[in-house]
Structures are given as structure tokens and as C-alpha cells.
Automatic annotation (TrEMBL):
EC number: 1.1.1.133
Matches recorded under Gene3D superfamilies: NAD(P)-binding Rossmann-like Domain (3.40.50.720), UDP-galactose 4-epimerase, domain 1 (3.90.25.10)
Name of this protein: dTDP-4-dehydrorhamnose reductase
Cofactors (names): Mg(2+)
Name of encoding gene: rfbD
Enzyme class: oxidoreductase
The record's free-text note on cofactor binding: Binds 1 Mg(2+) ion per monomer.
Length: 287
């Protein structure tokens, strides 16, 4: 099995390489190796390597920055996936594309199913949705996996940010009126591998953590774990604040919980995110 992986240095890309099954071969690329916004370069790479699958873990994920860098966000989140789908089609390879809960507006009160109406609130969500549409139109058999609130031992993420802030702050204000499901990047990688091994039907799948929380509750879990493991000597006081008290350039959905029954029916286990927080903090502490 040959896989061309994009976004190899990111959270998901790094975790995917860590979990590569025996007998699988991967060409791990990042933007310095393969510019996915350049169709001719993408086609040349795919034709030369002849992968069975193309896994697109590359994305412009800076939600607030996307509001002012619309063109760059669109190139990476829409044009890039479109190019990968076109190139994959030329050799009969299958594309796996990773998307986001931010394609929804957060007005729901029950978990979003895959066919729920999309209505992104910002540029990031809009460009990710445009990428989904482009991929599905070009390659209907592609696997599109929407996920949420990603964290890992790699890169920058909420877990690492909270641990850094806790080093010198006794109190922290963290948003308490946005709800979602934290998801470990390694579990997303494993979900992709399972879907490919099972030759699951194409289309959109939702995958996220097993339990809904607000951002302030997520922070509490992080600090409790870090305290137990001796990473922190004291636990900061977390004050829940409203979205209005913490204005950001991009508007975020207040509720973006994903319904994962479809992917569970493929034998994929949801991300038990609280135990994964423990593992990520332990791994970071041992580095």
C-alpha cells in the first residue's frame, strides 16, 4: 500500500506517520516539498509516485488570520484539495480529505449529522467547505472526514497553549459558551487507516472526541492532568467567560458537536479524549 501524505509536519500528518501499518509505504510531504496549490506540480508528484491513496492533512487552520488572508486560506483549503482530487483521478488513486466542524453555524442543539445543512460563519469554515465540495464533485468516492478541536503532542494546539499560560498565570479566563468535542490527532489518523483498510464507501464522515465540553471545561481537564503528572505544581483558577467578553476577528460556532454514528458503524472507535490528554501531557513532559 502506497500513500502520498500532505501536511506531514502538522499534527495529523505527524500522527499518521507514527501509526503507519506494517507493509504500508508513505511519501510524507509538506509545503516545502509539494505545493498543493500548484496543479502541475501535484500531477507530476502523483504520477511519479503512483500512490494507492492520497491523504490530505494539509490545511490553513489559523481561524482568525483567515479573515484577513482569505486568498491564502482559499488556495490551501479549496484549490489544494481540488488539485489533489484531479491528480488522484488521473491514476485511479483515492483521496482522503480532512475537514472541520466549522462548516456549521453552531445554531443546532443536537449533534450534527453528515447531511446537516452547512453554514460557515467565517472565512476558514467557508474555504474548508469549498474544499469539501470541490473534492466530492471531482471524486465522489473520496473520503471526507470532518473533525473538531484537534490536539496532540505535535505542533500548536489548545493543550499546549493552556500548559504554557499556566506556567506564569494564577487565573485564566476561558470561553464557557462554545461547545464541542476535543479530538486527539492520533485517533483521527487511526480512523483514516481503518476506513482505508475496510475500503469504506466514499462520502463524508464525522469523527471527534467522545464527550462534549466547553473550552473552560477542556482547560480544567488539562490542568488536572498536568497537576497529577507533576507537570504543574499548582492549578490555575479557570474563570468561565462569554464569547462576547473575548472578541476575536472570526466568529465561531457556539455548538459544533458532531454525530459520529456513521463512522462508528465502520468499526472506528471514537477518541477517548480525556485519556488522550493524559498521554499527550506525559509525552510532552518526557521530551
Amino acid at each position: 500500500m502506497k500513500v502520498l501524505l500532505t501536511g506531514a509536519k502538522g499534527q495529523l500528518g505527524s500522527c499518521f506517520q507514527d501509526r503507519l501499518p506494517a507493509g504500508w509505504e508513505v511519501w510524507a510531504t509538506d509545503s516545502d516539498v509539494l505545493d498543493i496549490t500548484d496543479l502541475e506540480k501535484v500531477k507530476r508528484a502523483v504520477i511519479d509516485y503512483q500512490p494507492d491513496f492520497v491523504v490530505n492533512a494539509a490545511a490553513f487552520t489559523a481561524v482568525d488570520k483567515a479573515e484577513t488572508e482569505h486568498k491564502t486560506a482559499a488556495l490551501i483549503n479549496e484549490t489544494g484539495p481540488k488539485n489533489l482530487a484531479l491528480a488522484a483521478n488521473e491514476i485511479g488513486a483515492r483521496l482522503v480529505h480532512v475537514s472541520t466542524d466549522y462548516v456549521f453555524d453552531g445554531e443546532a442543539i443536537t449533534p450534527y449529522i453528515e447531511t446537516a445543512k452547512t453554514n460557515p460563519l467565517g472565512v476558514y469554515g467557508k474555504t474548508k467547505l469549498d474544499g469539501e465540495i470541490a473534492v466530492s464533485q471531482i471524486q465522489p468516492d473520496a473520503l471526507i472526514i470532518r473533525t473538531a478541536w484537534v490536539f496532540s503532542e505535535y505542533g500548536n494546539n489548545f493543550v499546549k497553549t493552556m500548559l504554557r499560560l499556566a506556567q506564569d498565570r494564577e487565573t485564566l479566563g476561558v470561553v464557557s459558551d462554545q461547545f464541542g468535542c476535543p479530538t486527539y490527532a492520533g485517533d483521527i489518523a487511526q480512523a483514516i487507516i481503518v476506513l482505508l483498510q475496510k475500503k469504506s464507501a466514499g462520502g463524508i464522515y464525522h469523527f471527534c472526541g467522545d464527550e462534549m465540553v466547553a473550552w473552560n471545561e477542556f482547560a480544567e481537564v488539562i490542568f488536572s492532568s498536568a497537576l497529577r503528572q507533576g507537570v504543574l505544581t499548582r492549578k490555575p483558577v479557570v474563570n468561565g467567560i462569554t464569547t462576547a467578553q473575548y472578541p476575536t476577528p472570526a466568529k465561531r460556532p457556539k455548538y459544533s458537536v458532531l454525530d459520529c454514528e456513521k463512522i462508528k458503524n465502520q468499526g472506528v472507535i471514537l477518541s477517548l479524549w480525556k485519556s488522550r490528554v493524559d498521554e499527550v501531557i506525559a509525552a510532552s513532559n518526557n521530551k
